[in-house]
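Translate structure to sequence.
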């Protein structure tokens, strides 16, 4: 069969081209011998989720769409890190920059697009980048370690996502935008103003109506000059002002190009046997940049190459449903009023909800939704169908009903949606594709649909709609697969903890065996969680399983991207002494530490340490571990309080040190950060910490459930107390209650929202219960030891830090 297969070459290993290959493999799995060239040194990944990688919510492995095994199992020859530099259209060959040649019968160009870089004087300086690929993301992450200020040019979606990620990395971020308001291509002014307020609350700054004139600095960027003469200082400039189709390879090969590579309805170029798909293609004068149209193009091309009937690609009506730094927005159609149109608006600034419909000749022609985007898909269906909505306008604005969509009695929104409506925006999966997978493909669970179509396989935001379609089309045949803590079990956290208690299970292996794990070795999700639950339930009897912890926790230091580690000594409350500073400096010099940095939690971080040097460094420091690497108490941040500050009302330093000494080495479901502010001015940022203490006249406010990370959350007020001892009592009770009831790896911010503030207040309101929780946490803490000292003093443990050690298991 292989002798008669045609040779198919794909230039570009991105989302659009590989999606076309996926379709083709289903339609004609044995028709082609496939070769793929990709310029980046990675397999196919989800570019849409780069902002999540930058923000730290996921890593590179989480956004891989097709791993290397997928290419091997489908017989695809993949060349990563190869850029195709020439096409011989006569002899049908392509050649790469590394000298590899490949012949083709059919050639697909999916070269994507390049970021548009403003042609400003100084744009070639170090520290001026785009935000387009993994490399750009890594540059931003590295820059944030050594520099403080960043400017993002471009107030569109990409610019705001870059800004949010840089903010999370600890940089001061300002967004420069030439227009009067943000995201003018997706939002009207009212929605944009609401978005700006939300982002400003997260710490973002904005320079609107600013035209960039020149980039200042010698070798590295130092500032940005505007046309009005003002200068903004910066250490990094990220340009996110748009993209342009990558057509240079096509142009140099005699393929017809305009803005993009010109294609017909079957994605064919002017040269036989050569096709183009994705952001590089121009169809009927339009080059699309959204994922849904690109996937539609890929499906048409796959049918064409696979010999299946297709009507061709007729273009796409687009809508945009996005989550911008945690805020949901949706827009579609002509959402700015034009002559002859009228609009309806609903605005609730307390709840942060805005809706706008634009109507012309009794038809919906545009919509903007902010904060609540649940009506986006059905509104978009009305736009595409051109349905008359006379008399239903207010109902559509305030909440769409089944009747408003013309559905029969008993039908729901999903039923009324068009078949080509995109359900999974990350992977471009339509309602019709999911329906076919259920009705013809035999999918009876969300997991089946995910495996078959990739719907809900990325960010997971569309899972409720996938579940709804499963119920709609499968009915009683739908299998509600109970999801456990991981794929190894169907048991949830509470069931596992109850069974461990009931049968007094004492080891990770025993739990997995007795509770009938699917995978007898477990996985990187369940093993660490079981290790935590066992330690929490049996603090005196349970022996911590080192092999069930992550690398950072096994080596008691944070591993860095280059394989070195960072060391953060414990500095209680952020207060140190000249003697300790001298000691840290001397150790840094002795071990040739490449970087010493102050952390956001008022600690000193020694970065770039070799693993084999860790015990020797700890020994020289003779300081406790700061536990900057574990699911433990990290830091207690303080301001100077009444000790020095003229506004301070209480001793914030003393309280911070007391809390940190009380809870250091405490294992928790996820990392925990505390802060103490000496007055309501809140200089220690106590109201975005897991447990925050704010001094007031005559007492302390106690706050819980804050998070300053990827998902920013302000704290809830737990209570107000008068004495320092009461602060410690409530802190002990809260932390132990969290330890005993949260899911492993669940931050307090997520846990508080899940269980509700009132339930926590009720659990802690009885002093007898609080004291019992305090007693349990103190019993656990009494059993802990400083890991650095333990390793320094035990030769057997020090052996683990030799250059050759046991393989990593988690």
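Result:
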């Amino acid at each position: 069969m292989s002798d008669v297969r045609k040779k198919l070459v794909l230039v570009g290993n991105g989302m659009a081209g590989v999606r076309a290959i996926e379709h083709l493999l289903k339609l004609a799995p044995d028709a082609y011998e496939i070769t793929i060239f990709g310029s980046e040194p990675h397999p196919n990944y989800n570019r849409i989720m780069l902002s999540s990688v930058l923000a730290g919510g996921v890593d590179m492995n989480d956004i891989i769409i097709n791993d290397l095994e997928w290419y091997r199992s489908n017989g695809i020859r993949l060349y990563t890190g190869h850029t195709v530099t020439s096409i011989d259209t006569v002899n049908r060959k392509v050649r790469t920059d590394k000298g590899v040649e490949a012949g083709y019968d059919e050639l697909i160009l999916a070269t994507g697009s390049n970021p548009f870089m403003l042609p400003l004087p100084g744009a070639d300086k170090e520290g001026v980048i785009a935000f387009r690929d993994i490399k750009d993301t890594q540059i931003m992450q590295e820059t944030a370690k050594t520099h403080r200020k960043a400017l993002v040019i471009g107030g569109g979606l990409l610019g705001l996502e870059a800004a949010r990620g840089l903010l999370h990395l600890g940089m001061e971020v300002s967004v420069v935008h030439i227009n009067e308001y943000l995201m003018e291509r997706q939002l009207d002014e009212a929605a944009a103003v609401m978005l700006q307020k939300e982002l400003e609350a997260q710490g973002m700054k904005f320079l609107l109506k600013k035209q960039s004139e020149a980039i200042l600095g010698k070798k590295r960027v130092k500032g940005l000059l505007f046309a009005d003469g003002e200068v903004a200082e910066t250490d990094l400039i990220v340009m996110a002002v748009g993209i342009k189709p990558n057509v240079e390879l096509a142009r140099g090969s005699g393929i017809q190009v305009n803005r993009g590579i010109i294609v017909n309805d079957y994605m064919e170029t002017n040269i036989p046997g050569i096709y183009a798909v994705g952001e590089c293609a121009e169809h009927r004068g339009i080059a699309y940049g959204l994922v849904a149209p690109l996937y539609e193009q890929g499906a048409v091309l796959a049918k064409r190459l696979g010999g299946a009937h297709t009507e061709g690609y007729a273009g796409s009506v687009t809508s945009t449903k996005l989550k911008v730094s945690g805020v949901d927005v949706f827009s579609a159609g002509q959402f700015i009023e034009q002559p002859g149109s009228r609009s309806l608006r609903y605005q609730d600034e307390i709840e942060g909800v805005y809706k706008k419909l634009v109507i012309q000749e009794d038809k919906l022609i545009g919509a903007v939704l902010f904060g609540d985007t649940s009506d986006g898909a059905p509104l978009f269906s009305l736009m595409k169908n051109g349905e008359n909505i006379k008399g239903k306008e207010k109902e559509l604005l305030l909440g769409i009903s089944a009747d408003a969509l013309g559905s029969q009695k008993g039908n729901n929104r999903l039923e009324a949606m068009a078949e080509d409506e995109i359900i999974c925006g990350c992977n471009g999966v339509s309602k019709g594709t999911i329906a076919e997978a259920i009705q013809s493909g035999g999918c009876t669970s969300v997991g089946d649909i995910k495996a078959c179509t990739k719907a809900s396989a990325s960010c997971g935001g569309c899972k409720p709609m996938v579940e709804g379609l499963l119920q709609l089309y499968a009915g009683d045949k739908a299998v509600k697969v109970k999801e456990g803590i991981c794929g190894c079990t169907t048991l949830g956290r509470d069931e596992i903890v109850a069974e461990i208690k009931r049968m007094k299970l004492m080891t990770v292996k025993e739990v997995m065996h007795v509770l009938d794990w699917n995978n007898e070795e477990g996985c990187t999700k369940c093993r660490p969680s079981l290790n935590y639950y066992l330690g929490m339930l049996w603090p005196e009897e349970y022996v911590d399983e080192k092999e069930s912890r992550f690398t950072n926790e096994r080596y008691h230091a944070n591993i860095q991207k280059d394989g070195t580690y960072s060391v953060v000594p414990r500095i209680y409350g952020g207060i140190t002494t000249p003697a300790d500073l001298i000691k840290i400096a001397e150790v840094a010099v002795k071990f040739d530490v490449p970087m010493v940095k102050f952390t956001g939690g008022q600690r000193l971080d020694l970065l770039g340490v070799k693993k084999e040097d860790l015990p020797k460094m700890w020994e020289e420091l003779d300081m406790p571990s700061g536990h900057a690497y574990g699911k433990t108490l990290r830091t207690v941040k303080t301001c100077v309080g009444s000790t020095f500050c003229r506004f301070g009302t209480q001793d914030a330093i003393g309280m911070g040190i007391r809390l940190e000494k009380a809870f250091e080495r405490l294992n928790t479901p996820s990392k925990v950060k505390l802060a103490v502010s000496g007055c309501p001015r809140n200089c220690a940022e106590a109201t975005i910490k897991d447990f925050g203490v704010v001094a007031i006249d005559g007492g302390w406010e106690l706050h819980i459930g804050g998070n300053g990370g990827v998902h920013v959350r302000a704290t809830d007020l737990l209570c107000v107390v008068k004495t320092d001892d009461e602060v410690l009592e409530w802190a002990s009770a809260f932390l132990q209650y969290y330890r005993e009831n949260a899911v492993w790896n669940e931050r307090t911010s997520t846990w508080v929202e899940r269980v509700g503030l009132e339930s926590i207040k009720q659990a802690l309101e009885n002093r007898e219960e609080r004291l019992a929780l305090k007693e349990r946490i103190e019993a656990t803490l009494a059993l802990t030891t400083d890991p650095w000292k333990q390793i320094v003093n035990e030769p057997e443990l020090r052996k683990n830090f030799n250059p050759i050690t046991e393989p990593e298991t988690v």
